[in-house]
Amino acid sequence: MQRPEHELIRQSWRVVSRSPLEHGTVLFARLFDLEPDLLPLFQYNCRQFSNVEDCLSSPEFLDHIRKVMLVIDAAVTNVEDLSSLEEYLAGLGKKHRVVGVKLSSFSTVGESLLYMLEKCLGPAFTPAMRAAWSQLYGAVVQAMSRGWDNE
């Protein structure tokens, strides 16, 4: 990615990162709309959520949202050199694989991320910004996908 894309990502993330929990909740609400089968993967103390609202309001899940937003924040911070996050992201991929997440679900997560950015930024979310985020997210998923490789 070239410099102008980096700046578009940073600029948009500055707005989103002011309310990470609020925007992260939008991302996950959209994710569960698009792929409801993901809801049962979120269990805490062996308790499954009966509906999306229960999940999105549980303290454990809010903690998960915070962690996801921190990973995005790390990707934005290291946008010039994502290779510095390579091992961390591969480990994160492995954790997701172990709990039953399919690699294909990450394209739905990507759609949900773009949806959240669009909702948060409105008209400021330009096609160039969308393309820059798609590229960054693609690189993150590529690194995470190593967690699905055989040992």
TrEMBL record:
Please name the PROSITE patterns in this protein's record: GLOBIN
Q: Which domain of life is it from?
A: Eukaryota
Q: What name does the UniProt record give this protein?
A: Neuroglobin
**Which UniProt keywords are given for this protein, alphabetically ordered?**
Cytoplasm, Heme, Iron, Metal-binding, Mitochondrion, Oxidoreductase, Oxygen transport, Transport
State if Metal-binding is listed as a keyword: yes
Describe the reaction catalysed, as an equation: Fe(III)-heme b-[protein] + nitric oxide + H2O = Fe(II)-heme b-[protein] + nitrite + 2 H(+)
Q: What does the similarity note say?
A: Belongs to the globin family.
GO cellular component term of the entry, any: mitochondrial matrix
Q: Which residues form the Globin domain?
A: 1-149
Transmembrane residue ranges: none
Summary of the function given for this chain in its UniProt record: Monomeric globin with a bis-histidyl six-coordinate heme-iron atom through which it can bind dioxygen, carbon monoxide and nitric oxide. Could help transport oxygen and increase its availability to the metabolically active neuronal tissues, though its low quantity in tissues as well as its high affinity for dioxygen, which may limit its oxygen-releasing ability, argue against it. The ferrous/deoxygenated form exhibits a nitrite reductase activity and it could produce nitric oxide which in turn inhibits cellular respiration in response to hypoxia.
Q: Where in the cell is it found?
A: Cytoplasm, Cytosol; Mitochondrion matrix
What CDD domains does the database record attribute to this sequence? Ngb
Molecular function (GO) terms listed?
heme binding; metal ion binding; oxidoreductase activity; oxygen binding; oxygen carrier activity
The subunit structure is: Monomer. Homodimer and homotetramer; disulfide-linked. Mainly monomeric but also detected as part of homodimers and homotetramers. Interacts with 14-3-3 proteins; regulates the phosphorylation of NGB. Could interact (ferrous form) with G-alpha(i) proteins (GTP-bound form).
InterPro entries xref list: Globin, Globin-like_OT, Globin-like_sf, Globin/Proto
Q: Does the keyword Oxidoreductase apply?
A: yes
